[in-house]
Amino acid sequence: MRVDGLFQLDDDQSHAVLSLARRATTTDGVTPLSEHVLLHVRHSSGGSVDDPLSHFLLYDGTQLAGYAHLEHGSGGEPATAEVVIDPDLRRGGAGRTLVQALLKQAPDLRLWSHGHLAAARAFAARDGFTSVRELWRMKRPLGPEVGAEPLPEPRLPEGFTARTFVEGQDEDAWLRVNARAFAQHPEQGRITRADLDQRFAEDWFDPDGFILVEDPHGRLAAFHWTKVHAHAATPGNGQPSHPPIGEVYVVGVDPDYQGHGLGTAVTLLGLRHLESLGLAEVMLYVDGDNAAAIATYTRLGFQRADVDVMYSRAASGEPAA
């Protein structure tokens, strides 16, 4: 097997990686690559020899056997990667070959395991990786048709108002508040205008589901960006036949307005929007160590459904025997 490290992907390579990810999703019941990485695959362009390698393609002869995306750390943060291996070529050393290529580029590498699958846990234990971060997925039913608890009434502070996002008007204000709200977040806080435009171009984007809360002077104070997934893979049977599911995509509050109940209020506004679409279920992602957010979502009826895990190399830095 060989590994090709690339600055960018051409159209054929991009299509091959996306096809590989779809096959793995059908087999495992969970997507192996995050939205952030899938966007990079679909919109890969502009790389140069001055850029760090980001895309790693593993070939078994001419067949694409695996793919990894490497996100180089900045400001002292470690590099992170996501990996997918062809389901028909697993348990033959393909994963280890790809990870070793990543380690040559980033010895401080951290690896994401989406869904915390048994194969990923076994790989981590064998090669000296330990869990350093958990990202919970929590779910809640919506609507009386499925027996869901009614949503509380959203209550905004006096003078605060809610409206939906207006493209061509609200981008700069949103980017400023998002950066402030997620200043300590390794992914969300780095979103750029280009990242935002990529998401606006996705089929799922709906400005009616992008809710902004403004203070009495018209300054953006909080937001809730919702999302609707057309379907979700069903573990075990390979059929992507789940009904559509809503997502609490991003909720943010400007630090200047924390402590006023805006987080809960804007979350409820978004949930009511998703419920109005006739969706029977909603999900969200939250860091496992964010006790305050987990407590808030639990009070709103969410329960943990599954977890993504980030692994880091053991202190010895050497693979286990």
UniProtKB/TrEMBL annotation:
Entry's transmembrane regions: none
Any single biological process term in GO: mycothiol biosynthetic process
Enzyme Commission code(s) on record: 2.3.1.189
Binding locations of 1D-myo-inositol 2-(L-cysteinylamino)-2-deoxy-alpha-D-glucopyranoside: E35, E187, K227, E247, Y285
Residues that hold acetyl-CoA 2 according to the record: V251, G252, V253, Q258, G259, H260, G261, L262, G263, T264
Swiss-Prot/TrEMBL catalytic activity: 1D-myo-inositol 2-(L-cysteinylamino)-2-deoxy-alpha-D-glucopyranoside + acetyl-CoA = mycothiol + CoA + H(+)
Cleavable signal peptide: none
Repeat found in the keyword field: yes
Coiled coil: none
Enzyme class: transferase
Keyword annotations of the record: Acyltransferase, Repeat, Transferase
Domain of life of the organism encoding this protein: Bacteria
Positions with a binding annotation for acetyl-CoA 1: V83, V84, I85
GO molecular function: mycothiol synthase activity; protein-N-terminal-alanine acetyltransferase activity
Annotated SUPFAM superfamilies: Acyl-CoA N-acyltransferases (Nat)
UniProt keyword Lipid metabolism present: no
CDD domains on file: NAT_SF
Family the entry assigns: Belongs to the acetyltransferase family. MshD subfamily.
Complexes and interactors: Monomer.
Biological role: Catalyzes the transfer of acetyl from acetyl-CoA to desacetylmycothiol (Cys-GlcN-Ins) to form mycothiol.
Name of the protein this chain belongs to: Mycothiol acetyltransferase
Organism, scientific name: Oryzihumus leptocrescens
Name of the coding gene: mshD
